[in-house]
Specification:
The structure holds two protein chains of two kinds.
Chain A: E1 3-7, E2 16-22, E3 28-36, E4 43-45, H1 47-53, E5 56-63, E6 66-77, E7 82-90, H2 92-101, E8 105-110, H3 111-114, E9 118-121, E10 125-129
Parallel strand pairs in A: 3-8, 4-7
Antiparallel strand pairs in A: 1-10, 2-3, 2-6, 4-8, 5-6, 6-7, 9-10
Chain B: H1 4-24, E1 30-34, E2 37-42, H2 45-54, E3 62-66, E4 74-75
Antiparallel strand pairs in B: 1-2, 1-3
The chains are: A alpha+beta, B alpha+beta.
């Protein structure tokens, strides 16, 4: 069983994950993302990062954070067994919201990714792990 | 925004064609659009990626959607204490 467990971070404290993706060039890129079960989007990141990751565009959406450009990106967290094509979105406003808690966060990982694994938290940390 | 004009054309086409895509293709089928038209469909992303490449379309100028995608056009992103403009 593979697990990633992180102490909450930021101000205010937030759950978060470190995930690896493959840029369109194939270059791996590891980033820290605020984990949000209330987010219906798999991944939302800064527009500049989104444009490095996207391999094919998909539909855009409108949200309370503004318009988000959609695209398919490659999640490549092999140590967790999380190798998936996911529907991601670029939105500077939402990324900025995450960064207000911690400058380490470049965006948000939402429910569609979290539910690929078992996930949870306790008093001081948030974790995801390979489903049993 | 990458290839803004091409993306705008494809996004407008998707809005126009969404009901047709959902009616014509099984849920979860990957459908490719280019220059505002449906140009390919396939069972997997890898398959449609190959079809679109074989057709000679530049990747970022095409759009791949899922038939039966139930994500609405407008979505409220919700998270505890994580609302836009509220700290």
């Amino acid at each position: 069983m593979s697990e990633q467990r992180n102490l909450y971070k930021g101000r205010p404290l937030r759950p978060w994950l470190k995930l690896r993706f493959l840029e369109r060039t194939g270059q791996p890129l590891e980033v820290e993302l605020l984990a949000d079960t209330g987010c219906a989007q798999a991944i939302v990141v800064q527009q500049e990062l989104f444009e490095r990751l996207v391999i094919r565009p998909t539909r855009n959406i409108r949200t309370n954070f503004g318009d988000m450009q959609g695209g398919w990106i490659r999640l490549h967290a092999t140590e967790l067994g999380l190798v998936e094509l996911v529907e991601a979105f670029g939105c500077d406003e939402m990324a900025r919201s995450a960064m207000r808690s911690s400058l380490d966060f470049v965006g948000v990982v939402g429910l569609p990714v979290l539910r690929l694994m078992d996930y949870g938290g306790n008093y001081d940390s948030f974790w995801i792990r390979t489903p049993t | 925004m990458l290839f803004e004009e091409e993306n705008r054309v494809n996004q407008a086409a998707y809005k126009r064609l969404r009901d047709e895509i959902d009616a014509k293709y099984p849920k979860g089928r990957f459908v490719g659009l280019h220059d505002g038209m449906i140009v390919a469909d396939a069972e997997s992303f890898e398959a449609i990626d190959k079809k679109l490449n074989d057709l000679g379309f530049e990747p970022l100028k095409t759009m791949v959607v899922l038939a039966g995608d139930d994500m609405p056009d407008y979505v409220d992103v919700l998270g505890a204490g994580f609302m836009s403009g509220i700290q």
